Automatic annotation (TrEMBL):
Residues 158-589 form the Topo IA-type catalytic domain. This is DNA topoisomerase. The lineage of its organism: Bacteria, Pseudomonadati, Bacteroidota, Sphingobacteriia, Sphingobacteriales. Its EC number is 5.6.2.1. It catalyses: ATP-independent breakage of single-stranded DNA, followed by passage and rejoining. Belongs to the type IA topoisomerase family. NCBIfam families: PRK07726.1, topB. Keywords: DNA-binding, Isomerase, Metal-binding, Topoisomerase. Residues 1-141 form the Toprim domain. SMART domains: TOP1Ac, TOP1Bc, TOPRIM. PANTHER family: DNA TOPOISOMERASE 3-ALPHA (PTHR11390:SF21), PROKARYOTIC DNA TOPOISOMERASE (PTHR11390).
Amino acid sequence: MKAIIAEKPSVAREIATLLGATEKRDGYLTGNGYEVTWALGHLVGLAMPEDYGVSGFQREALPILPDPFILTVRKIKKDKSYVPDNGALKQLKIIEQVIGRCDSIIVATDAGREGEIIFRYIYEYLKCRKPFERLWISSLTEKAIKQGFDNLKAGSEFDGLYRAGQGRSKADWLVGINASQALSISAGRGVYSLGRVQTPTLALICKRYLENKDFAVKKYFQIQLEHRKEFTDFKSLSKTKWDDRKLADDTLKSIQRNGTATVTAVETKTATEQPPLLFDLTGLQKEANKRASYTAEETLNIAQSLYEKKFITYPRTGSKYIPEDMWSEIPALVRNLEARASCKKAVGKVKWGRFNKRIVNDVKVTDHHGLLITEKIPSELTAHENVIYDMIAYRLLEALSPACTKEITDIELQALHYDFTLKGCKILEAGWRGIKEKFTDEDSEPLQELPELKVGDELKIKEASVLEKKTKPPVLYTEAGLLSAMENAGKEIDNEDERKALKDIGIGTPATRASIIETLFKRDYIQREKKSLIPTHKGLQVYGAVKDKKIADVAMTAEWEMALQKIENNEADAGAFQREMEAYATSITRELLDTGIVNEKQPELTCPKCKSRQLLVWNKVVKCPDEACNWLQFRTVCGVPLSVADIENLVTKGKTNLIKGMKSNSGNKFNAYIVMNDKAETSFEFENRKPNRK
């Protein structure tokens, strides 16, 4: 009898059906010599400080350096403490019984670092010593699962992957637990969270926000000329930028009186744009955020759903390539897309027999190849699944197409003695851009088609105008921009040697970046303002405390990611990495215990309900400490944060100043006062209207 352990019940059912293990039992399926069971995500993880007998947030207990680390069943929060998750306990017992009845194990958790650690931690926790093999597949289609079972790999082949996953979880524990407790202790009030990847990511957002906020916008002026030749209208722009509007206006009048511009230079060159490669997860998340405003986590969840329905290959991939032995399967995938209405027209533009092989590269395929559709073409999907599926399908069609060839023409003109420039573009071969019929990127200016121009041509000035422009601050991060910054963290490093070494190393991995961003939201460190990510007051407080420390340094975090990759490839020692993390956790703990967080000066306010206790003013709520009274006021009302002054006015005067820009449940914006009655109940008071109970 063989035990098979999948990561989720849905995957276990697919495998069990294929193997003939169709008899349902409590927590597993059996039949045909197999017992197929499943984890429910991370059933087992590293124990928390209290499991080592260390009570939390005690200065004298830091740093906490477990030796050895203990594994424990997943815990959930109940009241003010953490208790074992009953569902996890039950499933773990079932897995133990299944393994006990079997001679060997087939590991069928997701084929990646997280999937490996999910199984290995269960295996270690149960003190199991039975032999195991690894099912390593990139899609859940029947064909892929059968091929996987025909080519089961020795479990020992993935020891490096396990050591890297274990090293990452221990590093996150050592840095996260110690740094978070140290900063919270030094702050004196409130709980603050720091992390190995979370904190440099927050630093990226805060640094960009402050650069944007502190940027001094300057006005400048340019002159634009409009011309017409051979029935074609086109525009040129002055090279000169004037700071003074009057000077620009005076120049404009002189140019208009002259009435002509002369072509002084013509340069034509052919530009070749290679097609994009396949999506990896980060690429898909960036594109989905730009095109459909999906968050990174939403995109991952939709892609995971498509994977589990067998429509796409494994989404948590960091590669944009496929291996040589998969190339023969590509034509059938493209041909199948003809059956999908949204893709049929695009498939008709593909050059059969001339497929571009840029996506084939055995060396650059990591654990999994780039994102592909499978041979199973969907007929019914949700609206969001349709969007993500078509992105992946269209990207495949683009990647297989030839390069786009353009003729780019740069023209220089002179009007009076002022220089003007214009750029023209002519598509020679549409290539991959013909698939979607988009010939420029959305964030670049469309290039105009030009008539035939040569040096010495005199062009009449049809119209002329002064354009008022402004210098632009560094753009706030969108989720797509932040994912790019995380992916390319190594390129931002100032030291040239370090930058070269870490050029292709980001912070986090494609599989974890979405959860890191979501963690920053959960911690109340960042918020969304339309599509932009901006720090909250609390986020800026944390950044202010750590910005000059290594924990906020993307270079160091990228170095750690590189070390984990080397451990995964059996090129570095996991023990040495852990010792380095312990030394770092010790030094950052000392640094942070001597660091204070600058808090808002809190007013002393008496509870308006019980009239006896002083209110506690926290980042998210203001509350009475007396549980019998339990008066509470949230610090964010209808999407607008209340300042300490607003809270003070409400409690002492019974009314805030006018709060602007609040949003109703239907999404409509409104302005109102928040008022309090004699029973300490709050309601809205609209301008020139009577109070309306919230």
